[in-house]
Amino acid sequence: MSRYRRDSFRLVTPTRPSFPLKKPLRIEEPDASARDSIAEDPPELATDPEGLSPKEYARAIASRLFFIDLLAAFSLSLIAANGGLSLPPPMLVALCAAGALVYVAALSALKTYEIRNLSRVHLALGNIIKAAAAWTVVVFALSRFVGHDIRFVFTLSILVVGMAFWRMFAMVFGILRPAVRRRLRSRVVIVGWTDMVGQLVENTRGDFTADFDIVGCVPLPHGAFSIAPPPSVPVLCRYMGLLELIKGRRIDTVVLADHLTADEFQGLATVCQRQYVDFHVIPAGFPTLRSCLDIHVVGGVPLIGYGSLPLDKVTNRILKRLLDIAGASFGLLCASPIIALFCLFVYVESPGPVFYRQRRSTRGGRDFSIIKIRSMKVDAEAKTGAVWCKKVDDRRLKVGSFMRKTNIDELPQFWNVLKGDMSLVGPRPERPELISQFKHSIDNYNARHMVKAGLTGWAAINGWRGDTDLNRRIEADIYYLENWSLSLDLYCIFATLFKIKNAY
User: Fold this and answer.
1) What is the pLDDT of residue 24?
2) What would the pLDDT profile of 63-90 be if each residue is shown by its tens digit?
3) For residue 41, pLDDT beyond 60
4) Is residue 215 a contact partner of residue 174, using CB atoms and an 8 Å limit?
């Protein structure tokens, strides 16, 4: 799980096997010794005063948000289109009602009201803008069909701004309040303990928007852990005492982190199902892209495997390509005088070709020629071969040091973006000679080639470029693959203007 992913607790829920087990194991009532082994309840294990589970409480909030969004979208668009609070004509009321229904339907289709997304502010604001596109198409078409003119642009602007303000108000004074967040968090008990659970605890520590609390753990049926849990996580009881916690409704979710036999697995899943407790499994054997794991049922048999990444969707790839074309065209137009000036500086200091072409790899391992303003002496790698540039490097030109620190030498790559070899945002392209070394020594290295190489990227703006820790760089690249969105690309583009790290 990526260290950057702080708002995700996405574990795969196994489908119950369709074949019968010969000797299904039951978690029986605990005996006296097991009951005595349960630690005194800490405050976080207390039941909800209204008897609602976090999931039920979240569903209630989501339902209220849905209807308030519907009312707000209708009211804002009607007042804006009518030009005030005067009595509107019936046709305008009908148009605004239809638009409001389409608006909230689009928000729902974008998964705004899903439980795990309730506290994700950036997702809600992004979806408000996307839903406005659906509203525009429907309301514009209906208004032309019925022949009723409305103040279209003004109404759309009021709708987007008003909904954004309403959602921010709901977040600050509602969903993100500590008392509400406590009731929204699932109380989670871990069965067993592994490095992945430790990573989960470390990556989410201090994240007040997390929708779960790991309140404790229990050992495996044989009474021990594969890896000892940290002292900060209490061992609540022995495995046989887990039923008492479940029946007391003091936990909401059981997560299996280690291996059980088929009978033990079936017994635990059955008990959780009967007691209305969520049961999840942390899958082992998937070194990367864990947030994209999915279940496919083939011939009645569930198969866990990699699902689709955001950029596997055709619409997302089209949006990204349109952004690349627009951004690269604008960038090349603005950068042309700068490129010409520094090409002159390079030629004066070191006569010879001012542009430098180098073979790099992009999506799918395809090679292309990247274009840079030459920052080193002519034939700088004739003796050394392909090596990384270092902070102290006598091959560099004087003007080359400045260009590399300010990324000016990268400006001609806008042409690579226009050609389609690269994207504005993505993992930085590497040389095939170095890739042949890294893919054997760095775990998950080639996962970064599932998208086009980028002019800038999540790793670059976080400082993982140049001669830095490759493992951290790959971790950042994988985070980008799993969490791509148009807003993330825009953030990386703007952040690049202010975050110049490790460029030398």
Assistant:
1) 38
2) 899 999 999 999 999 998 888 788 888 8
3) no
4) no
Burial grade of 234 (CB within 10 A; 0-12, 13-18, 19 or more): middle
Give the whole-angstrom CA distance, residue 283 versus residue 53. 25
Question: What's phi and psi for 425, nearest 5 deg?
Answer: -125, 135
pLDDT grade, residue 103 (50/70/90)? very high
DSSP output for 384-449: T-S----SS-TTB-HHHHHHHHHTGGGTTHHHHHHHTSSEEESSPPB-HHHHHHHHHHSTTGGGGG
With a CB cutoff of 8 Å and minimum separation 6, the contacts of 384 are none
Q: Are 253 and 262 in contact (CB under 8 A)?
A: no
Strands (DSSP E) along 239-366, which ranges?
A: 253-256, 278-281, 293-298, 301-306, 355-361
Burial 289-327 (b: 16+ CB within 10 A, else e): bbbbeeeeeeeeeeebeeeebbbeeeeeeeebeebbeeb
Q: Which two tokens stand for residue 104?
A: 């909230």
Six token digits for residue 340: 């010409």
Tokens of 466: 């140049």
* Residue 217 DSSP SS3: strand
Q: How far apart are CA 295 and CA 15, in angstroms?
A: 8
Distance separating the N- and C-terminal Cα atoms of the chain: 30
Encoding tokens for residue 276?
Answer: 């209305």
Mean pLDDT of the chain: 78
Is the Cα torsion angle 29, 31, 34, 39 positive or negative in sign? positive
Kind and range of the H or E run holding 454: strand 454-456
pLDDT value of residue 29: 40
Q: Are strands 186-191 and 212-218 parallel, antiparallel or unpaired?
A: parallel
- Three-state secondary structure call for residue 332: helix
CA dist., res. 435 & res. 126, Å (int): 36
Q: What is the per-residue pLDDT across 267-323, written as a single tens digit (0 to 9) for each?
A: 888 888 777 788 888 876 665 666 666 665 555 556 666 667 788 887 888 889 999
465 vs 474: CA distance, rounded Å: 10
Does residue 400 surpass a pLDDT of 90? no
Q: Can you read off the two tokens belonging to residue 296?
A: 């496919």
207 in Cβ contact with 180 (< 8 Å) = no
Rounded to the nearest 5°, which phi and psi values hold at 352? 145, -170
Torsion angle of the four alpha carbons 166, 171, 173, 177, in this order, in degrees rounded to the nearest 10: 170
Q: Which residues pair with 213 in a beta bridge?
A: 187
> How many alpha carbons fall within 13 Å on the CB side of residue 481?
31
The model's confidence at residue 30, banded by pLDDT at 50, 70 and 90, is very low
Using CB atoms within 10 Å of the CB of residue 67, give its burial: 0 to 12 exposed, 13 to 18 middle, 19+ buried: exposed
